[in-house]
């Protein structure tokens, strides 16, 4: 009798574990390229693109400090460049590639489609997430040089790459940390301290981040879309790898940031592991994305 009760108990525990691990955990996503293991992404030591990536981070870390980030915010957050729909602007991503990315040479329009399609498969009901995924790198249009769009081709290091707070010490969790020694803020009496110009747990909203495509698209979506808060966090902090991947800079976060962190991490798996050379065509997916973009961006956007 005791043996039977024990057996039933084991079955119950195993059943409960199966239900928990299958349905209640955040969804884990496998790299679309079946040949590529997760550890092989974000290789900053000896990838095929090492030289390009290393040069990129030398420039970014040398030039991107508090003053530069503030200047770029002033320049780009006026939204007086042009008026176009999100879809029209996304088509310009076809001509954009990202020098900081060790994992792909595909155009950023393909990357948008891959990321969004991966999200859609895992979360078919969350159309706001599909839109966020589709537009997450749309800020990279700042790389385009086209006077008709009011764009003058910013350098790669001022648009892409991982993000980090400026105005306080550069955390060692940043990739290529050694290049920060070239930055004028490196030995600044205030900016080189742990908290710098910030208060403990002031919240990321009060922190000036290194300028890039994340902040630009976030500011546009915040004022010109009806995307939910979770989507806005995904847009704003998706390149903040030292935070969402390495757990650094927690001393600047408030409770709300910590609450939102899991959404940023959830999004990251689609951004990162969907990169492969095999991708649905834009024509195949265009009708669906045009429709949901219109739902969340009902009007043409001021860029
Ligand atoms: Fe990005
Ligand atoms: Fe991306």
Characterize the structure shown.
By secondary structure, this protein is mainly α. It has one domain. Helix content is 45%, strand content 3%. The protein is built from 11 helices and 4 strands, in the order αααβαααββαααααβ. Strands 1-4 form a two-stranded antiparallel sheet. A two-stranded antiparallel ribbon has the order 2-3. A hairpin with a 4-residue loop joins β2 and β3 (151-152). The longest helix has 23 residues, at 2-24. The chain is globular and about 80 Å long. It starts with a helix and ends with a strand. Mean pLDDT is 90; it is low at 20-26. The structure holds fe (iii) ion (2 copies). The site of one fe (iii) ion (FE) has 5 residues, from loops.
- Range of strand content: under 5%
What low-confidence regions span 5 or more consecutive residues with pLDDT below 50?
A: 20-26
N-to-C SSE string, H for helix and E for strand: HHHEHHHEEHHHHHE
Biggest sheet overview = 2 strands, antiparallel
Counting DSSP E segments of at least 2 residues, the number of strands comes to 4
Content-based structural category? mainly alpha
Helix percent band: 40-55%
Radius of gyration: 21 Å
Question: Reading side by side through the largest sheet, how are the strands ordered?
Answer: 1-4
- Summarize model confidence as the mean pLDDT: 90
């Amino acid at each position: 009798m005791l043996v039977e009760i024990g057996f039933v108990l084991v079955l119950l525990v195993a059943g409960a574990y199966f239900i928990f691990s299958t349905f209640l955990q955040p969804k884990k996503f496998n790299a679309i390229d079946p040949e590529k293991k997760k550890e092989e992404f974000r290789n900053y030591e000896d990838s095929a693109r090492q030289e390009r990536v290393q040069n990129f981070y030398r420039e970014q870390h040398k030039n991107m400090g508090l003053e530069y980030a503030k200047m770029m915010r002033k320049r780009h957050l006026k939204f007086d460049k042009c008026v176009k729909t999100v879809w029209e602007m996304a088509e310009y991503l076809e001509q954009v590639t990202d020098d900081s990315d060790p994992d792909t040479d595909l155009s950023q329009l393909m990357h948008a489609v891959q990321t969004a399609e991966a999200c859609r498969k895992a979360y078919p009901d969350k159309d706001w997430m599909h839109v966020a995924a589709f537009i997450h790198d749309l800020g990279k249009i700042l790389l385009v040089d086209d006077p008709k769009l009011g764009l003058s081709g910013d350098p790669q290091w001022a648009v892409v790459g991982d993000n980090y707070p400026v105005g306080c010490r550069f955390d060692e969790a940043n990739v290529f940390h050694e290049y920060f020694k070239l930055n004028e803020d490196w030995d600044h009496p205030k900016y080189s301290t742990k908290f710098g110009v910030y208060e403990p747990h002031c919240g990321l909203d009060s922190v000036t981040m290194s300028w890039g495509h994340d902040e630009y698209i976030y500011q546009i979506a915040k004022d010109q879309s009806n995307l939910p808060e979770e989507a806005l966090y995904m847009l704003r902090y998706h390149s903040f790898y030292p935070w969402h991947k390495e757990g650094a800079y927690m001393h600047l976060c408030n409770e709300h940031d910590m609450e939102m962190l899991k959404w940023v991490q959830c999004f990251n798996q689609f951004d990162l592991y969907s990169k492969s050379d095999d991708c649905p065509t834009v024509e195949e997916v265009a009708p669906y994305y045009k429709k949901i973009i219109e739902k969340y961006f009902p009007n043409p956007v001021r860029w």
